[in-house]
Design goal:
By secondary structure, this protein is α+β, with helices and mostly antiparallel strands. It folds into 4 domains: 1-31 and 197-225 and 235-343, Multidrug efflux transporter AcrB transmembrane fold; 64-166, Multidrug efflux transporter AcrB pore domain like (Alpha-Beta Plaits, 2-Layer Sandwich), CATH 3.30.70; 357-386 and 548-716, Multidrug efflux transporter AcrB transmembrane fold (Up-down Bundle); 403-517, no CATH class. Helix content is 62%, strand content 9%. Strand 4 and strand 5 form a beta hairpin. This is RND superfamily putative drug exporter.
């Protein structure tokens, strides 16, 4: 297959490039629509009680928790002063008539109830609910901010709440994406110039990376026509698309130049490159896609989106690397070495002498190297044991973002977000009152509001007020529990568990951000073991089919798991525990976003296997040729070490660029994956893999008789057998160059 592909590219070079250019332009045009088709959110399980309650509140009861919070501060210090009260009433009336606002609860329109006034009396709260689709809600938020936010004479208005935070997240991500590209692309080009020592060769991987990203945006746009896709997947597409395409291009271009140096005609060199490096790229990409595919099993569309985005960008990167790039190389021929940079000296032939020397040093002390590396990785992994999970809230935004400041001011001065509880089925007044009384006794509950009044500490503290009727419609009833703790916290989770444990003659569906967190954890916990099993089994099968060994796949899975645990431990130490928070400009919440470790593990596991295939393919090629284990190890490290480390540096630059993001969990995503790539390339692949392979000896490539027979029938010959020396049916002798 790869020989045929190489020959097709060589014979139809210009046609291949013309069709490829047309496809890239078309996908770029269509893919540009992805930015408006993607959605925020997606962190919850749509089949959970909390999600069902939210849908019932919005669709059937026309109610629910407010998603806009206006903190109105009296410039004179008293919200009940005549000027401030008049301004408060005016802005409340204006908000009521704003398009897209379904419900308004205002301190000044409800007779000045104390819960909506701060303890100092200097500020008051106006709550609203913006309805409609995500795009409609975002448009409503913009209208409210444009017309009401800021200084209004007697009062100053801040706009916060979940809808304002979501809108701010979208804008911040757009800025993050532009900044990351401005950082990553110049640095990547500089590194490629150093690696290839020539302008033409250095530009090729970057051009392939751009083509891969354009194609991946099209994939996202296409999926968004049929299902929900998270806006956060754009960052993965950009980082992974550029990184993988450059990784694969490094391997392709390096092998092509190696074939030219060996004296082969450019067309023959192209075919041989597709047969060898192209084959490695395809199966390396498949291992990445297999790991990312595990995310599709989770119910949250935030995680599923990364499966769509990740698999899509991997396939596009593979296609660009084994079709477009070989066609360009065939057209360029020896001109791939044009515009050489002076002053940059190449290593001696046959690979990097420094890497060969490093491999030789590792092989002399394999036990010491293994022990040292494992201890270091275990030390990095230790913080994982203290991981505490949570969902994102306003604190993931930069501290100077207005929506975050307003949301935090509302929580600080007026209490925390209420937990709506939907009452399913018929319920008598006495049953609802009994439930409210029991709920008000739950630890860390401030009060419970119902259509029949307010309860606190097991006692009825107030009768129904003007706002009480909002808790009942012809379609059903609901109530609200006001907690005394931060919504995203273990104490708040205990509140949800205690509320759900109350015995009632009706179904009580608890909603709100805390309940969503509880349900998200449950959804992830139920699926994660199966996703991990899929990754392990599929990876083992692929590596066995490639190399015919039982030990090599097992070792790869164990080492990857150890590497990624170390990366997660470092991220817990930094982001959950707050170390380096000032340096990296983020606010530590004491929690780790529940979805990010899964996402980072899947992506990093795939990338680690990517480099594993690069390295093992060359080792296996040399072992099959010589039958000597140590020679194969040294040759594999010497020939792939420069490529793997260069690829890791390029990919880590891309990820670290996204580590400059303003959104905390995307910062964690970029820094974590960048760190994982570097640990894998410089510690695991450069030291642990050769050390363990030295200790295993010939057992590296051993398999029982039944497994050998299976590999002979179904296995993949990674080395491609005897590489081509012809460009077509007529044989040609290789043309020696220089």
């Amino acid at each position: 297959m790869f020989t045929a592909l190489g020959r097709l590219v060589v014979r139809r070079t210009k046609l291949t490039l013309f069709v490829s250019l047309a496809v890239v332009v078309l996908t770029a045009v269509l893919g540009s629509g992805a930015f408006t088709a993607l959605k925020n959110g997606g962190f919850d399980d749509p089949s959970s009680d909390s999600a069902r309650a939210r849908v019932i509140l919005e669709k059937e009861l026309g109610a629910g928790s407010p998603n806009l919070l206006l903190v109105v501060t009296a410039n004179g210090g008293d919200v009940d002063a005549p000027e401030a009260a008049a301004a408060g009433r005016a802005l409340s009336q204006e908000l009521t008539t704003t398009a897209g606002i379904d419900e308004v609860t205002s301190y000044w329109l409800l007779g000045s109830p104390p819960p909506l006034r701060s303890e100092s009396g200097g500020s008051a709260l106006v709550m609203a609910r913006a309805g409609g689709s995500e795009a409609e809600v975002e448009a409503t938020v913009a209208r409210v901010q444009d017309s009401l936010e800021g200084d209004r004479g007697a009062v100053t208005v801040q706009v916060g709440g979940s809808a304002a935070v979501d809108a701010a997240l979208g804008h911040t991500l757009e800025d993050d994406l532009v900044r990351a590209e401005l950082i990553a692309i110049p640095l990547t080009l500089l590194l490629l110039l150093i690696v290839f020592r020539g302008v033409v060769a250095a530009l090729l991987p970057l051009l392939v990376g751009v083509a891969a990203v354009m194609g991946a945006f099209f994939v996202l746009w296409a999926f968004a026509q049929f299902t929900d896709v998270s806006v956060f997947s754009i960052n993965l597409v950009t980082a992974l698309g550029i990184g993988l395409a450059i990784d694969y291009s490094l391997l392709i271009v390096s092998r092509f130049r190696e074939e030219l140096k060996a004296g082969y005609d450019p067309k023959v060199a192209t075919i041989r490159t597709v047969e060898s490096a192209g084959r490695t790229v395809v199966f390396s990409g498949v291992t990445v896609a297999v790991a990312l595919l595990s995310l599709i099993a989770f119910p949250m569309f935030f995680l599923r989106s990364f499966a769509y985005a990740g698999v899509g960008v991997v396939l596009v990167a593979i296609a660009a690397s084994v079709i477009i790039l070989p066609a360009v190389l065939a057209l360029l021929g020896h001109r791939v070495n044009a515009w050489r940079l002076p002053g940059l000296r190449r290593d001696a032939e046959g690979g990097s002498r420094r890497w060969a020397a490093l491999a030789g040093g590792v092989l002399r002390r394999p036990g010491l190297v293994t022990g040292t590396a494992v201890v270091l990785l275990l030390l990095l992994s230790a913080p994982v044991l203290g991981t505490r999970f949570g969902n994102p809230d306003a604190r993931v935004l930069p501290a100077d973002v207005a929506a975050r400041q307003a949301t935090e001011a509302a929580q600080r001065d007026f209490g925390y977000e209420a937990l709506p509880i939907v009452i399913k089925g018929a319920a008598e007044r006495s049953d609802i009152e009994a439930y409210a009384q029991a709920a008000s006794r739950v630890s860390n509950v401030t009060e419970v509001d119902t259509r029949y009044g307010t309860w606190a500490g097991g006692q009825r503290t107030a009768g129904p007020g003007p706002e009480a009727e909002r808790y009942a419609t012809d379609a059903g009833q609901w109530l609200e529990v006001v907690p005394a703790v931060q919504p995203i916290s273990s104490e708040a989770e205990n509140v949800v568990h205690d509320l759900r444990a109350i015995d009632a003659p009706f179904d009580a569906l608890v909603s709100g951000s805390t309940a969503e967190l509880v349900d998200t954890k449950a959804g992830i916990t139920s699926v994660a073991p199966w996703a991990a099993l899929w990754i392990a089994v599929a990876t083992f099968a692929l590596l066995f089919l490639m190399f015919g060994s039982l030990l090599v796949p097992l070792k790869a899975i164990v080492l990857n798991t150890l590497n990624l645990t170390a990366m997660l431990g470092a991220m817990v130490w930094i982001f959950q525990d707050g170390n380096l928070s000032e340096l990296l400009s983020f606010t530590s919440t004491g929690l780790t976003d529940v979805s990010m470790p899964l996402l980072m593990f899947a992506v990093a596991f795939g990338l680690s296997m990517d480099y594993e295939v690069f390295l093992l393919a060359r080792m296996k090629e040399e072992y099959d040729r010589t039958g000597d284990n140590e020679t194969a190890i040294v040759s594999g490290i010497a020939n792939t070490g420069p490529i793997v480390t260069a690829a890791a540096l390029v990919l880590s630059i891309t990820f670290f660029a996204f580590g400059t993001a303003g959104v905390t969990f995307m910062k964690m995503f970029g820094l974590g994956l960048g760190l994982a790539v570097l640990i894998d390339a410089f510690l695991v692949r450069a030291t642990l893999v050769p050390a363990l392979m030295k200790m295993a000896g010939r057992a590296n490539w051993w398999a029982p008789a039944w497994a050998r027979r299976l590999h002979e029938k179904a296995g993949i010959d990674e080395t491609g057998g005897t590489l081509s020396t012809t460009t077509g049916p007529a044989a040609r002798e290789p043309q020696r160059v220089g």
